[in-house]
Design a protein that fits this description.
Chain lengths: ~260, ~475
């Protein structure tokens, strides 16, 4: 049985090969299954890979979450290697000598990490809160979508299981007892901070787009375009035109679709 | 209490000797004043049957067991019927020990040839428990069990088992068992279970949680049927990060709802080292009425034993199975597919070693057959004869088998034979087999894989197997 050390070595060795042609990005079904936080993370990884100009194919699977080595979506399969989540994938790509942060000095790099953590710890958690704790959203959207891939009665069991996991996580982070207003405030102050950092520039850093831009794009774009019974998060984001501009720009540049009305 | 000393004239009846051995009755041969009588010619009438020691056990089920005894006409019949009644009482599972006493009947109502039979029973206590070790197919485990036998007085029991295995699998099982009265010896078992299992040969592990219902009965005295339904949530995940992608693709939670019918006819004279008789077992499984796993799986196991000389037994065995999809929307996971190879199956191969592999993980196929020709003999020079040595057998074998992915509907009969024959795996070898209680068998064999495929994982040399059901 391979030990974690051998795992690590094989990942390091694999990293030396060039970017394979048949890279696939696995994520849940977009139309009927995926939830807001997962969708945001999947979009962030897609944006990052596009910014790096790396080829990949999106492969929807109903059990993507279980296939992922970390239990979270998305993950990519490159040759024999599987990497999950934005951080892991960024590291894997960096290992191949491709990086979006080469032009940054150390201070900027630590800034970048700090802002990425901020997005992860505020916006993503707020999305989880809205999806799983807000009763209206849970009943009308989350439970229906999350359970859509399971037969009865497994759908109810899986919904409850997942809900318990999320509640546990939120309790650890001290978010479970927050009211909706407090959650809105957290999101608002996070957007404020991002907006201040962006300072009407094209991207967060002058050298061009980085993984931070990809992550912010993933989350904000999803928040703005996902129809939910409660669209207060989208309302808050709309108050920051500089962030909206960033999202629009990345969408036009990398996803080459007509910019939807945000 | 009077005791009947009866002696049979030599060779007059073999039944009695056998009966005496089974019941532990001793014939006192040395007593000088023994009168020789032919028990078949002693007319008797069973006047009264006493059952002593009944507490919470209900009368009706005990009556069912002993009723036949009243019909006995002669003394030998009484002995045989009393023995049969004792076996039946034992099968109820309510009693710890059962003693049988036969006496002449006394008192006002006694008839001339009257007998009085007394069953002295001791009931199980309300709750029993224990820690034991258990041997399953290639795994040993520690088992903690609790039992509440005979809770409502008709043999119903609740049992709880928790086991922790040598391969770090832990299992939980809570079962309620209810035997029914009647000649079909029916019984019903409802259980709630959780089972962890790891399959290193296929690179996955699985947690199963669910409900199982099993209804068993005999349609004739030896033909046993078992109708089962199980509703199980199965969480399949990869065992390591480096598991092959084909296994990773199947990770996830699914719900299996399956009906199963098992028909078995066991005419063997022993479970572990039979010397004569055969076993036929046919299993049909239909999954997909509810749930998202769907398939039809049919399997057959056949075994025949022939005694060549007194202690030399030739065993032929055959297993075959075929799995078909039910519909396109229902899944068939790696856990449902068919595998052969390993010390309990086709020896000389790794467990699940025959057939398609992906990065070392066995993927299984939808059809298989495996056959074995075994010769069991006592140990050379027969050390420990009549005692310890009888637990061992020398074992020579030839195993063959094949797996395939095909659909029976799409091929003709001629093609089928070709598919079954082409690329057949063959191995042979010899070893020693050891009986473990009356439950399991250990085999240590030296194997020579003779014909195998590129993708197979062979295991030449010494192979160790422990299990309940062997090919």
């Amino acid at each position: 049985m391979p030990s974690p050390l051998i795992d690590r070595i094989s990942i390091e060795l694999g990293a030396q090969e060039p970017w394979p042609k048949d890279v696939k990005l696995f994520q849940p079904y977009e139309v009927e299954q995926i939830l807001l936080p997962d969708n945001a993370n999947c979009l962030a990884v897609q944006a990052f890979l596009k910014m790096c100009n790396l080829e990949f194919q999106v492969e929807p699977r109903s059990n993507a979450e279980f296939m992922s080595p970390t239990g979270k979506v998305p993950f990519i399969k490159a040759g024999r290697f599987v990497m999950a989540e934005l951080e892991g994938i960024v590291q894997f790509v960096n290992g191949k000598g491709i990086s979006l942060t080469d032009g940054l000095d150390n201070e900027q790099k630590s800034d970048l990490r700090a802002y990425m953590t901020l997005v992860r710890n505020v916006i993503e958690i707020a999305e989880l809160y809205i999806c799983w704790i807000d009763r209206e959203t849970y009943n009308e959207v989350t439970s229906v979508r999350n359970g859509s891939v399971y037969p009865w009665p497994l759908n109810h069991i899986q919904n409850r299981e997942k809900k318990n996991q999320v509640i546990k996580k939120l309790k650890v982070l001290d978010w479970y007892n927050k009211t909706l207003e407090e959650v809105h405030q957290e999101v608002e102050s996070c957007c404020e901070a991002l907006s201040v950092r962006l300072d009407n520039k094209q991207y967060f850093f002058n050298g061009g787009p980085t993984e931070l831009d990809a992550l912010v794009f993933g989350h904000l774009f999803t928040i703005l375009t996902t129809p939910l019974p409660r669209n207060d998060l989208a309302e808050i984001v709309r108050r920051y035109p500089s962030l909206i501009n960033l999202v629009k720009k990345i969408e036009v540049e990398y996803f080459k679709k007509d910019s939807r009305r945000l | 209490m009077g005791i009947v000393h009866a002696k049979v004239q030599d060779g007059s009846s073999k039944n009695v000797g056998e009966f005496a051995r089974q019941t532990g009755l001793k014939e006192h041969q040395d007593e000088p004043d023994v009168k020789e009588i032919d028990m078949e010619k002693v007319p008797v009438r069973v006047d009264k049957i006493n059952v002593e020691g009944l507490g919470r056990t209900k009368n009706d089920i005990v009556e069912d067991c002993i009723r036949e005894l009243f019909k006995a006409k002669d003394f030998q019949d009484v002995l045989l019927k009393a023995h049969r009644a004792r076996v039946k009482l034992d099968e109820l599972g309510c009693f710890k020990n059962i003693g049988v006493y036969i006496d002449t009947s006394k008192g006002k109502t006694a008839t001339e040839d009257g007998l009085e039979v007394t069953f002295d029973v001791k009931e199980h206590s309300r709750v029993t428990g224990g820690i034991s070790t258990q041997v399953g197919n290639n795994e040993g485990s520690v088992l903690v069990g609790m039992r509440a036998p005979n809770i409502f007085g008709r043999g119903e029991r609740v049992q709880m088992e928790y086991s922790h295995g040598s391969k770090k699998t832990s299992n939980f099982n809570l079962a309620f068992i209810k035997p029914f009265r009647g000649k079909h010896r029916a019984s019903m078992r409802t259980s709630i279970l959780q089972a962890h299992s790891q399959w290193p040969s296929s690179g996955y592990k699985m947690v199963e949680q669910g409900i199982a219902i099993d209804f068993g009965f005999y349609s004739t005295s030896l033909l046993k049927h078992s109708l089962q339904w199980e509703g199980i949530i199965r969480d399949l995940s990869t065992l390591t990060r480096t598991a092959s992608f084909d296994i990773r693709e199947q990770a996830g939670v699914n719900l299996k709802s399956a009906f199963r019918h098992i028909l078995s006819l066991d005419l063997r004279d022993d479970l572990i080292f039979p010397s004569s008789g055969s076993l036929v077992q046919v299993t049909s499984e239909l999954a997909g009425i509810g749930g998202d796993v769907g398939f039809v799986k049919n399997e057959i196991v056949f075994q025949d034993n022939t005694s060549l000389f007194e202690d030399i037994v030739l065993q032929t065995s055959l297993m075959a199975g075929y799995l078909t999809t039910l519909s396109k929307d229902k899944k068939i996971t790696v856990a449902d597919r068919c595998y052969i190879g390993g010390p309990l199956s086709v020896r000389g191969f790794e467990a699940r070693g025959v057939g398609p592999h992906s990065d070392g993980d066995a993927l299984g196929s939808n059809a298989y057959w495996a056959a074995g020709l075994h010769l069991f003999t006592p140990l050379p020079f027969r050390p420990g004869r009549g005692g310890f040595g009888d637990l061992f057998r020398t074992h020579f074998f030839i195993n063959a088998g094949n797996v395939g992915d095909f659909s029976l509907e799409k091929i003709s009969r001629g093609q089928l034979l070709d598919i079954l024959k082409n690329n057949m795996r063959l191995s042979y070898g010899l070893g020693v087999a050891l009986r473990l209680g009356n439950m399991a068998r250990i085999e240590v064999n030296y194997c020579f894989p003779y014909k195998f495929d590129k993708g197979d994982q062979t295991h030449p040399g010494v192979q160790f197997g422990i299990g309940v059901q062997f090919l």
